[in-house]
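User: Good morning. I'm curious how NAP would be positioned relative to this chain. Could you predict the structure with it bound?
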Amino acid sequence: MKNHTKKTAIVTGATRGIGLAIAKQLLKQNYQVVINSAHSAEVGKSLAQQFEHIAYLQADVSQADQCQQLIQQTVQQFGSIDVLVNNAAVSWQIPHEDLDAVTPQVWEQIFHTNVFAIWHLSRFAKPYLATRNNANIINISSVAGSRPMGSSIPYATSKAALNHMTRLLAKTLAPTIRVNAIAPGFIVTERTQSWTKMQQQVFANTPLQRNGTPEDISQAVTMILQSPFLTGEIITLDGGFSLAG
Ligand SMILES: NC(=O)c1ccc[n+]([C@@H]2O[C@H](COP(=O)([O-])OP(=O)(O)OC[C@H]3O[C@@H](n4cnc5c(N)ncnc54)[C@H](OP(=O)(O)O)[C@@H]3O)[C@@H](O)[C@H]2O)c1
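Assistant: Good morning! Here's the predicted structure, ligand included:
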């Protein structure tokens, strides 16, 4: 599995959806890829059997000690880290007007997974990334981080925090590590494919007249990796939905 001619990428939350599409795209770009999840270990192990240059490491990134283990185990297996894609996130549908439904536990779970995890993983990966050429941290955010929308207020707030952390880390980790974020609009994945009403609403308000796919996001990962002067950017990928007012 270990291949010294290949670069190494970690993609958190990559057993399905956008994370899995990013992992497959990185394989095509000749990376060996560590995919991760907290729960779906059987799916992760089966993907690792299916694809020669994919390894699966189980870790709940909402826990700082498991973030450290994920980085350490990756370095033990592959010797280096070139790209860290912080994709794992949690979200629940909570109507914005239902303030009482947002318990302290909801805030904590969302911020531990969607914000603090990115800090811990970036901090633990930094010494390894810093020795590589074209080292990158790519954070998967959301249009909810910059517009008053999203599955819940804590989720949207977490993505706003992630956007600002992206800019701050880009400034702090330059010139050795580039840090960018991709902010998708609504994307049809296994999780959202049954949300037909949402799909129709977004479609009707999207200038490019289609819904987004996980591959739209994974192609932007390649674009970032191939753009050596790009850092500190939050790249909106929503087919123009945000332009609609
Ligand atoms: N889909 C959209 O419309 C959309 C729109 C904007 C932004 N995004 C962003 O895009 C990213 C991926 O979204 P998605 O829709 O593909 O998500 P998804 O289908 O819910 O998949 C999430 C992945 O993260 C893993 N995960 C969840 N909690 C974790 C934890 N604590 N530690 C490690 N892994 C964990 C999940 O595996 P287990 O649960 O098995 O652990 C799964 O592999 C997220 O950052 C999301 O906020 C999505």
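The first helix runs from residue 17 to 28. The mean pLDDT is 97.
Let me know if you'd like a different ligand tried.
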